[in-house]
Design brief:
- This protein is an alpha/beta fold and about 500 residues long.
- The chain has 19 helices and 21 strands.
- The chain has a seven-stranded mixed sheet, sandwiched between helices. A six-stranded mixed sheet has the order 3-2-1-6-14-13, with helices on both faces. The protein has a two-stranded antiparallel ribbon with strand order 4-5.
- Helix 16 links the parallel strand 19 and strand 20.
- The longest helix has 27 residues.
- It is globular and about 60 Å long.
- The C terminus is likely disordered.
């Protein structure tokens, strides 16, 4: 039985075909493509029509290879969305979550409603680009998009709509908006009313595994494919990645590692409390009726942005060469909080790192290896802090950390994470989101009875690398210094610029 997973990240997308047979799960990459934002004037957009084109390219390649998947699912990043008009057509290209028009709106909304009230109604981490603040910014700037809008769709919802003609909202991605009330199990009409957006735009929310349409006949005719059922999977890519965590125990901690790092645990109910709000954790929907208690961490975005800058400056370097330089650079010379708002926008990231280090009285990193080492060490140390908070909020103790996603190919980061947390790291699978996407499709089709049977199959089908902690005393000393520098001790998240 084969299924097709489209996994769209903030930098690239891929179409991966999954086969399930008596040897386990086998995957094959069918198509890989870039996903680059487009800047027009001061605005930053997603090239959504290009993404649709690439999805069709994947289907064309499937046809050429003689494959007939039994279903198809799409997962992507959260918070961003498109709006449909009365004729069912898309109103403009969706904005990118790093667009500067959303700056400062979160603080205004929280002053008007109070942060406590917003968190109690949603359980979602306060991030300046959440959908709640994007829609508020558009409304208060009198955007013509909102005057014409009649339907709201998240990015996977929108791409599914292009394929099927069916406009349906999916649970895991809906929860990332900070507009969904997990207690009521529906869109929060009070928040929508406050920002002046019609609740009629928002449809019923379907759970992962729901069949939401068939591939349009026009697409089938153009490509020469038979009709394929389209499923709503765990459409937030982290939700899919968590499905693919090859855990052996029901209580586990995970880190989905890529452009963003997302660390947390899987629970039956959200943790909406004064403490989880103070630590700025989030409660996002998961597959199988679960919730993901987790925290967004800036992730490898910082390193990726530095590499893009070096490329523009004619000093481009391969990823492998950069990690080799980082490994021999001086240890713990320059540490920073990856989640400082200084590092959120695109731009001159190396200069911002130097600025942070100068203001905190540390050695200012100058060469590529020292900058890369500062980023990776700071990430590993922040992972320890967030893991401690996760244990505190969930009232659980974890014996180690499962790392999934493309970031696990950075073996230096995996080892330094183990060193930092003082516990083993189990890294794999790398294509966690795509594999979790497939697993939800197989569960929906009855091939696996539940998420735990799927996880057993994933564990038996894909290699997992284990990293044991090393140099514990040096890392423990660095951690204490990291807490002092970042003001993340004893227990609050600052989120403010140095």
């Amino acid at each position: 039985m084969s299924v097709l997973a489209y996994d769209l990240g903030a930098g690239s997308g891929r179409a991966i075909l999954g086969h399930l047979n008596d040897r386990g799960i086998e995957t094959r990459e069918i198509h890989r493509f870039k996903n680059e934002p487009v800047k027009i004037g001061d605005r930053m957009h997603w090239d959504i029509l290009r993404l649709h084109h690439e999805i069709l390219q994947g289907l064309t390649l499937i046809k050429q290879q003689g494959e007939v998947p039994e279903s198809l699912g799409i997962d992507s990043w959260g918070v961003d969305f498109g709006l449909l008009g009365s004729n069912g057509e898309l109103l403009g290209n969706p904005y990118h979550y790093r667009d500067t028009q959303f700056n400062g709106v979160m603080d205004t909304v929280c002053q008007e409603l109070t942060a406590k009230r917003v968190f109690e109604r949603t359980g979602i981490q306060f991030l300046p680009f959440n959908t709640l603040y994007q829609l508020t910014a558009l409304k208060r700037s009198a955007s013509p998009l909102l005057r014409e809008a009649e339907r709201f769709l998240m990015i996977p919802d929108l791409l599914r709509y292009f394929l099927t003609g069916e406009a349906v909202n999916e649970f895991t991605n809906a929860t990332t908006t900070q507009l969904y009330n997990p207690v009521l199990g529906q869109w929060d009409r009070e928040l929508l009313a406050h920002i002046g957006v019609s609740d009629q735009w928002f449809g019923d929310v379907v759970l992962p595994g729901s069949t939401v349409g068939q591939l349009r006949s026009s697409i089938c005719n153009d490509i020469g494919l038979a009709s394929i059922p389209i499923l709503a999977v765990a459409e937030h890519d982290t939700g899919s990645a968590v499905v693919a965590v090859p855990a052996t125990e029901t209580s586990f901690a995970y880190l989905s590692c890529g452009t963003w790092s997302l660390m947390g645990t899987e629970l039956d109910q959200p943790v909406i409390s004064a403490e989880s709000m103070e630590l700025n954790f989030t409660n996002e929907g998961g597959a199988g009726g679960t919730y993901r208690l987790l925290k967004n961490i800036m992730g490898l975005w910082i390193l990726q942005e530095c590499m893009r800058q070096w490329e523009r400056e004619g000093q481009g370097i391969s990823y492998g060469s950069l990690l080799a330089k980082a490994e021999i650079a001086p240890a713990f010379a320059s540490l920073f909080d990856p989640d400082d708002v200084l590092f959120l926008p695109a731009g001159n990231m190396t200069e911002r790192i130097r600025q942070y280090c100068q203001k905190t009285g540390q050695r200012v990193p100058e060469d590529q290896g020292s900058i890369a080492r500062a980023i990776l060490e700071s990430l590993a140390l922040k992972y320890r802090r967030v893991l401690e908070w996760t244990e505190q909020l969930s009232e659980k103790t974890f014996g180690g950390l499962h790392m999934v996603g493309g970031g696990i190919q950075n073996e230096l980061l995996c080892q330094w994470t183990a060193n930092s947390i003082g516990k083993p790291v189990w890294a794999g699978p790398a294509e966690g989101s795509a594999i979790g996407n497939m697993a939800v499709q197989w569960i929906a089709r009855g091939t696996f009875k539940d998420i735990w049977e799927a996880r057993r199959a994933i564990r038996d089908s894909f290699p997992v690398s284990e990293y044991e902690p090393q140099d514990r005393s040096a890392w423990a000393e660095a951690y204490e210094r990291f807490l002092r520098i970042t003001a993340l001790s004893p227990g609050t998240e600052t989120g403010s610029e140095v």
